[in-house]
Every structure is written in C-alpha cells, then in structure tokens.
Amino acid sequence: MAVPKRRRSSSRKNKGRTHKKLKTPNLSFDPNTGEYRVGHRISPDGYYNGRKVLDK
C-alpha cells in the first residue's frame, strides 16, 4: 500500500484547496418579469426563453 514519505505541511495542504470553493450562480435578466433569475430555469410565471411553457 502506498504511504506518503513525508508529512504534508499545512500551507502546502491549503494551497491544494484553493479551487474548492462555492461559485456565484450566473444570473440573467428576465424581460418578462423584470427580475434576475438563474439561467436555464423556468421563471416563476412559467416562461422559458420568452415562451409560456407552464400553466398554473
């Protein structure tokens, strides 16, 4: 079984974790509602890509 030869320092360990973080969602402006929403999602009114796709 493979075992590390030397202990990995805390600073070196933290440098490897620099890309492990939450990213902000990409928001797009919805002209039908006038609000921002996450892309590729249906708006609360049931519109997607300018067309009504969901009836309430």
Q: Care to describe what's here?
A:
The protein is built from 1 helix and 4 strands, in the order αββββ. A two-stranded antiparallel ribbon has the order 1-2. The protein has a two-stranded antiparallel sheet with strand order 3-4. The protein is an alpha+beta fold and 56 residues long. The model has no long low-confidence stretch (mean pLDDT 89). The termini are far apart. It has a domain at 25-55. Keywords: Ribonucleoprotein, Ribosomal protein. One of its GO terms (cellular component) is large ribosomal subunit.
Estimate the strand proportion.
Answer: 15-25%
CA(first)-CA(last) distance: 59 Å
Number of helices: 1
What percent of the residues sit in helical stretches (DSSP H or I)? Answer: 10-25%
Poorly predicted ranges (pLDDT <50, ≥5 residues)? none
- The side-by-side strand order for the widest beta sheet comes to 1-2
Average pLDDT metric:
89
Number of strands: 4
Rg for CA atoms:
22 Å
Strand-pairing-aware structural class: alpha+beta
| Main sheet makeup | 2 strands, antiparallel
H/E series:
HEEEE
| Shape type | rod-shaped
List the keywords.
56 residues; alpha+beta; 11% helix; two-stranded antiparallel ribbon; two-stranded antiparallel sheet; single chain
Q: What is the compact description of this entry?
A:
The chain is an alpha+beta fold and 56 residues long. The protein has a domain at 25-55.
Write the layout of secondary structure elements.
Blueprint: H1 10-15, E1 27-30, E2 35-38, E3 47-48, E4 51-52
Antiparallel strand pairs: 1-2, 3-4
